[in-house]
């Protein structure tokens, strides 16, 4: 027994070294596991952050692409309206085109940022205003058709009265036989409006395309409005239902036609006889 204790006393440093080696190995294994665990979690975190950054970048890129596509659509719509007017004019004057534009049609793209829909008094708010060149009585549309007209503007926003409003009306014409009428919405089905004052002598038919007409005080002529659903004869006029081209429940981006009606034309169309008499008196020698 004495020799045994003497061995430990003489080899205390050897035992200390052995214990330190064992402790070092344990620490190494433990640290290696923790380091691997930490590295693994770090990799997962980097992947998560990278994915979120990629999603955010994709979102903004999509918004930018949407704006570019909207601008491209505005140019295409201007061309389509102009070409459509030329074709309709050509048909009505024995294939002799008489399309005369005061100035090229230009559009301001905007996004619908607020909508107030109830039974009959529907309103849209868009994120473009006077700073972007908007004025009251400018037509608002999409590639699918007429949305409405601007009724009020601030610096960066505008209020739009849509087609589906009880006080909205616009002069329209059928695409095949140039039948004219007044389009209004009766407050019932959102996608269906009515054409009024079409006499029984007209030859309008179902499935005809409907466009804005020259008689409108705000809308450019030739803007698509919708398609005739049914034509029902009544006492003096037809009852005509039109399927609107715009889906208002899914409306996001719009285009504002930066052109208003000629003030002289609007003045002559008003019922204010005092103004009309004033115009006539100025023209007298």
Account of the 3D structure:
This protein is α+β, with helices and mostly antiparallel strands. The chain has 2 domains: 95 residues; 156 residues, Beta Barrel (Thrombin, subunit H), CATH 2.40.10.340. Helices cover 38% and strands 26% of the residues. The chain contains 4 helices and 12 strands. A 6-stranded antiparallel barrel has the order 1-2-5-4-3-12. Strand 4 and strand 5 form a beta hairpin. It is elongated. The C terminus is likely disordered.
How is the topology of this model organized?
Blueprint: H1 2-10, H2 12-92, E1 107-116, E2 123-126, E3 139-142, E4 145-153, E5 158-162, E6 169-174, E7 180-184, E8 192-196, E9 209-212, E10 224-233, E11 238-244, E12 253-257, H3 263-269, H4 273-283
Antiparallel strand pairs: 1-2, 1-12, 2-5, 3-4, 3-12, 4-5, 6-7, 6-9, 7-8, 8-11, 9-10, 10-11
Uncertain ranges? 92-103, 272-285
Number of structurally distinct domains: 2
Instruction: Write down the secondary-structure element order.
Output: HHEEEEEEEEEEEEHH
The mean pLDDT is 75
CATH architecture of the largest domain: Beta Barrel
Instruction: Kindly report the name of the CATH homologous superfamily of the largest domain.
Output: Rod shape-determining protein MreC, domain 1
Radius of gyration based on Cα positions: 36 Å
Helix content bin? 25-40%
Helix/strand-derived class?
Answer: alpha+beta
Ends: how far apart? 145 Å
Task: Count the E strands.
Answer: 12
